[in-house]
C-alpha cells in the first residue's frame, strides 16, 4: 500500500504533512513510485506481507542523496541494493558485491531514437514504441542517472572507434557505450571508498562514475561504473 505524507516506517505515524521537510516528501514520492513499479512487475518479494514496510525501511537507512539519484524506472535495482545490504549484515558474506553489464547512452542517443520513432508506423501504438525503445539497448542503464560527463565519454569513445575504422560500430552503437556496474556492500569504515577505488584500479578498471552511500546503521553501499573490463 502506498504511503502518504502522514505515514512513516512501519508505524506510519508522524506529524502533519505541513511539518514534513521537503526531502521527506521527495522520499515518499520516490518510495511510492518504486513500490508501484515493483508490485506491477509481479515480483515475488512484493507479495510478502511486510514488503512495503521493509522497502520504506530501506529508504530510511540511506541518505537523501540516494532518493534523489536512484532511477525509479529501474525499481528492481532498489531490490538489489536492499538484498546486498541484507547479505552484508552477515560477517561471513563481507564484502558483498554484484557485477553487471550496463549501457550508457550519449546525449545524442535519445535524439536518434526519437527520429527513428517519428518515421516508424509504430508511433500510433505507445506500447509498440515502448518495446521498440527497450530493444535499442541489450543491457540496462546504470542504476543512477548518469552524469553528463559519462554521456560525453560514451560518445567520444565510440567516435574514436569510428574514426579508427572499427567496422563493428554502426549508427546506433556509436551512441551507446557498454560498461560494467559494480556494487559493493560491507561495514562502513574510514577510507573505505579509497580502498575500493584502489582495488578496482589494481585490476585495471577505470572508474567513470561512483556513488557512495552510508546507512544510518553503519553499512555502506558503493556503486561504480567502470570500463576496462572485457565484456565476457
UniProtKB/TrEMBL annotation:
Q: Where is this region: Disordered?
A: 1-25, 113-145
UniProt keyword Metal-binding, yes or no? no
Where in the sequence does UniProt note compositional bias of the Polar residues kind?
Answer: 8-19, 127-136
Q: PROSITE patterns, alphabetically?
A: ACT
Limits of the ACT domain? 181-232
Protein's name according to its UniProt entry: ACT domain-containing protein
> In which organism is this protein found?
Vitis vinifera
> What would be an example GO MF term here?
[protein-PII] uridylyltransferase activity
> Which UniProt keywords are present, listed alphabetically?
Hydrolase
The lineage's top-level taxon is Eukaryota
Q: Name one Pfam family in it.
A: ACT
List, alphabetically, the InterPro entries matched: ACT-like_dom_sf (IPR045865), ACT_dom (IPR002912), UTase/UR (IPR010043)
Amino acid at each position: 500500500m502506498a504511503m502518504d505524507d502522514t505515514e512513516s516506517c512501519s508505524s506510519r505515524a508522524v506529524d502533519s504533512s505541513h511539518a514534513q521537510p521537503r526531502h521527506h516528501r521527495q522520499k515518499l514520492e520516490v518510495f511510492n513510485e518504486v513500490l508501484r513499479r515493483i508490485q506491477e512487475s509481479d515480483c515475488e518479494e512484493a507479495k510478502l506481507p511486510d514488503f512495503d514496510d521493509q522497502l520504506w525501511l530501506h529508504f530510511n537507512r540511506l541518505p537523501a542523496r540516494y532518493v534523489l539519484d536512484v532511477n525509479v524506472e529501474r525499481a528492481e535495482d532498489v531490490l538489489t541494493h536492499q538484498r546486498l545490504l541484507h547479505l552484508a549484515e552477515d560477517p561471513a558474506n563481507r564484502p558483498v558485491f554484484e557485477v553487471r553489464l550496463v549501457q550508457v547512452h550519449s546525449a545524442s542517443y535519445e535524439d536518434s531514437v526519437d527520429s527513428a520513432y517519428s518515421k516508424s508506423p509504430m508511433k500510433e501504438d505507445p506500447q509498440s514504441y515502448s518495446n521498440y525503445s527497450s530493444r535499442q539497448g541489450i543491457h540496462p542503464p546504470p542504476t543512477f542517472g548518469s552524469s553528463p560527463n559519462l554521456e560525453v565519454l560514451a560518445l567520444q569513445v565510440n567516435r574514436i572507434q569510428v574514426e579508427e575504422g572499427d567496422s563493428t560500430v554502426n549508427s546506433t552503437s556509436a551512441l551507446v557505450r557498454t560498461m560494467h556496474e559494480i556494487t559493493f556492500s560491507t561495514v562502513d569504515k574510514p577510507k573505505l571508498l579509497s580502498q575500493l577505488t584502489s582495488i578496482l584500479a589494481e585490476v585495471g578498471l577505470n572508474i567513470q562514475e561512483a556513488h557512495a552511500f552510508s546507512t544510518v546503521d553503519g553499512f555502506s553501499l558503493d556503486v561504480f561504473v567502470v570500463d576496462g573490463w572485457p565484456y565476457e
